[in-house]
Design brief:
Strand content: over 45%
Radius of gyration: 11 Å
Largest sheet: 4 strands, antiparallel
Number of helices: 0
Oligomer: single chain
Low-confidence stretches: none
CATH superfamily: Immunoglobulins
């Protein structure tokens, strides 16, 4: 199943990171568009950080 985290209204050029709930980095990158998607391999709870803002996300 294709699982993605959708991020909207981001500043282009900011760094982003996706962490699992154990604090392990799942993915790192830079924002290349104001709205983009980040693929994740499995369902669960993730922390998504874009710039200095962090949000908890549930992926089903």
């Amino acid at each position: 199943m294709d699982r993605r985290i959708q991020v909207n209204s981001s500043m282009i050029g900011k760094r982003y990171a996706v962490y699992d709930m154990q604090g392990v980095v799942v993915q790192l990158g830079r924002v290349d568009a104001a709205s983009f998607e980040i693929p994740v391999s499995k369902a669960g709870v993730y922390m998504v950080r874009v710039g200095s803002q962090t949000q908890r996300v549930n992926v089903k």
